[in-house]
Amino acid sequence: MALIHSWRRLSMYPWMRPLTERRVLRKWERAGRPIPATPLIKQMIVKHYQRRFKLRVLVETGTFAGEMIDAAIGRFDRIFSIELDERWYANAKKRFAGRPEVVLLHGDSGARLREVLSQLDEPALFWLDAHYSGPATARGLLDSPVVQELDAIARHSVRGHVVLIDDMRDFNGTAGYPEASALVEDLRNQHPGDVVEIRDDVLRWHLRG
Fold first, then answer.
1. Does one domain contain both 160 and 72?
2. Cα 183 to Cα 51: distance, rounded to the nearest angstrom
3. Which residues pair with 95 in a beta bridge?
4. Helix axes 17-30 and 39-53, enclosed angle (nearest 10)
5. Radius of gyration of the CA atoms of the chain, in A
6. Any residues with CB less than 8 A from the CB of 116 and at least 6 apart, and which?
7. Euclidean distance between CA atoms 99 and 96, whole angstroms
8. 118 — phi, psi (to 5°)?
9. Does the pTM exceed 0.85?
10. CB 3.0 to 4.6 Å from 144: which of 37, 45, 136, 176, for a disulfide?
11. Could you tell me if 44 and 27 lie in one domain?
């Protein structure tokens, strides 16, 4: 037990993160890649696409406790995150007050994402994770603003964005969630030639290559 606690303390340090990530990844794969994946696995997915497409901007919807931002600092030149819940937004403002590369916005990402897009002139990585998740989170007009978010991204003048949508198991055609297979089909029809697939509970939409 003491060894486990020592490992957890060490894993908090940045230089230990690669070792921790490899350990968590192996454990997850041995377990059959269960969903939902842990936050660390999701952070590793984001880092993979950042490296693969050499992206310098991260746009997140659904800040929550700010763990994705914390994992992304140092890997992106700019990080935008939108949070509807006033408490989580205030906490994030305090947590990242000394990080000028982190831009936090308060409000409904279905509307405010367009403001972020108006500031972008290069491809970005989008981590779409804004949705109602019980009393600890805020609830907008719809449980998920993902339809409005995707529409804003699709209309943007810049090509080459990478879009990752979390929690695809919840996409059942109600409360603002499109049905998962219908969403994949629509994106493929609207953007022929692009990769649109769901793996490990995450929809991935990006250019081929």
1. yes
2. 26
3. none
4. 110
5. 17
6. 59, 80, 82, 103, 105
7. 5
8. -65, -15
9. yes
10. 176
11. no
Task: Report the alpha-carbon distance of residue 130 to residue 122 in Å, rounded.
Answer: 23
Sheet containing 102-106, strands listed edge to edge, beginning at the edge strand earlier in sequence: 102-106, 78-83, 57-61, 125-128, 162-165, 202-206, 195-199
**Which H helix or E strand runs over 195?**
strand 195-199
- How much is the pLDDT for 3? 44
Residue 187: predicted pLDDT: 97
Which tokens go with 66?
Answer: 């700010």
Helix (H) / strand (E) containing 28: helix 17-30
Q: What residue numbers bound the domain in which 181 lies?
A: 35-206
Judgement on whether residues 62 and 159 belong to the same structural domain of the protein: yes
Rounded-to-integer distance, Cα 154 and Cα 66, Å: 26
HEC profile of 132-155? CCCCCCCCCCCCCCHHHHHHHHHH
| Cα–Cα distance measured from residue 149 to residue 80, given in angstroms and rounded to the nearest whole number | 14
Give the CATH number for residue 200. 3.40.50.150
**Pair (11, 67) in one structural domain:** no
The residues of the chain scoring below 50 in pLDDT are 1, 3-11
* Same-domain status, 169 and 144: yes
Q: Residue count of the chain, please give it.
A: 209
In this prediction, residue 6 carries a pLDDT of: 45
Q: Which residue has the tokens 């629509």?
A: 186
